[in-house]
């Protein structure tokens, strides 16, 4: 793999008593790369996300961001080092406006001085990019699910991450809303060049977004490669699609 390493996950494992949720997973990401993480429910995707973001401490192994170990650090420390993430179940501050939700990210989660750029300009630009500028003054609890998902992305981006981790941004959306979300993520990547690690059950969207896909099954990596290669991987077909190979 050429280019500077952004994220390195080395033999990362997480056990809960006798249950091994993630076992010895290894992978790396370059700066600006878009990588997908796929697997059936219970494959270990969310646990792996939580280990990278600091919500869960690995039982063993190491996780490095730009060469610095981040495993075991608090989530706020990892966020300020440049890891932003969304959650499958979105929980914005419902009594605050869309704009105020984004300001919280800039003020309290940013890895850079939040005063380095005029806040009004930074918030306005970000809301334009996620398609929420016309709803900036609406309360978050008045938004549709699709809009709340966009707000979740905006709040994560407000922390100025070098790695954006997206946990099922398209879950629960209609086909039209999913297509719009896909276009938004593609535009964000093109404009900002930010690296993205993506968990998504919408396989068509993942194949369009990602340069490389990592497949998990029962907490272990069973495949890694380009989208076209991974969908032809026999182990992935058996585990993820539940199909028999020839």
Q: Could you outline the blueprint of secondary structure elements for this entry?
A:
Layout: E1 5-16, E2 19-30, E3 34-38, H1 45-53, E4 60-65, E5 68-69, H2 75-80, E6 83-85, H3 98-108, H4 119-129, H5 145-157, E7 163-167, H6 175-192, E8 195-199, H7 203-209, E9 212-217, E10 220-225, H8 227-230, H9 234-241
Parallel strand pairs: 3-8, 3-9, 6-7, 7-8
Antiparallel strand pairs: 1-2, 1-4, 4-5, 9-10
Helix pairs in contact: 3-4, 3-5
Note the beta-strand portion.
Answer: 25-35%
What's the number of extended β-strand segments?
Answer: 10
CATH level 4 superfamily of the domain at 1-73 and 198-246: P-loop containing nucleotide triphosphate hydrolases
Largest sheet: 6 strands, mixed
Q: Which architecture name of the domain at 1-73 and 198-246 does CATH use?
A: 3-Layer(aba) Sandwich
Poorly predicted regions are none
Reading the helices and strands in chain order gives EEEHEEHEHHHEHEHEEHH
The side-by-side strand order for the widest beta sheet comes to 6-7-8-3-9-10
Cα shape:
globular
What is the end-to-end distance? 31 Å
Q: Can you tell me the CATH topology of the domain at 1-73 and 198-246?
A: Rossmann fold
Helix percent band: 25-40%
Task: Give a quick precis of the structure.
Helix content is 35%, strand content 25%.
Explain how this protein is built.
- This protein has a domain at 1-73 and 198-246: Rossmann fold.
- It has 9 helices and 10 strands.
- The chain has helices spanning 45-53, 75-80, 98-108, 119-129, 145-157, 175-192, 203-209, 227-230, 234-241, and strands at 5-16, 19-30, 34-38, 60-65, 68-69, 83-85, 163-167, 195-199, 212-217, 220-225.
- The chain starts with a strand and ends in a 5-residue tail after the last helix.
- Residues 7-243 form the ABC transporter domain.
- Keywords: ATP-binding, Cell membrane, Membrane, Nucleotide-binding, Transport.
């Amino acid at each position: 793999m050429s280019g500077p390493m952004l994220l390195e996950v080395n033999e990362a494992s997480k056990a809960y008593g006798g249950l091994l949720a993630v076992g010895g997973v290894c992978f790396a990401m370059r700066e600006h790369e878009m990588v997908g993480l796929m697997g059936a429910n219970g494959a270990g995707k969310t646990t792996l996300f939580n280990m990278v973001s600091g919500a869960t401490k690995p039982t063993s192994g190491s996780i490095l961001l730009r060469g610095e170990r981040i495993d075991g650090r608090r989530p706020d420390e990892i966020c300020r080092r440049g890891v932003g993430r969304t959650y499958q179940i979105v929980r914005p501050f419902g009594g605050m406006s869309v704009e105020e939700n984004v300001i919280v990210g800039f003020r309290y989660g940013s890895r850079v001085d939040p005063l380095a750029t005029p806040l009004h300009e930074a918030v306005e630009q970000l809301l334009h990019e996620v398609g929420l500028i016309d709803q900036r003054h609406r309360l978050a609890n008045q938004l549709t699910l699709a809009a709340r998902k966009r707000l979740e992305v905006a709040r994560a981006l407000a922390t100025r991450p070098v790695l954006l981790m997206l946990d099922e941004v398209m879950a629960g959306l209609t086909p039209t809303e999913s297509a719009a979300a896909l276009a938004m993520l593609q535009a964000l990547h093109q404009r900002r060049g930010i690296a993205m690690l993506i968990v998504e059950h919408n396989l068509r969207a993942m194949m369009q977004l990602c340069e490389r896909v990592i497949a998990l099954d029962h907490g272990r990596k069973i495949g890694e490669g380009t989208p076209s290669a991974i969908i032809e991987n026999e182990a992935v077909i058996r585990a993820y699609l539940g199909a028999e190979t020839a």
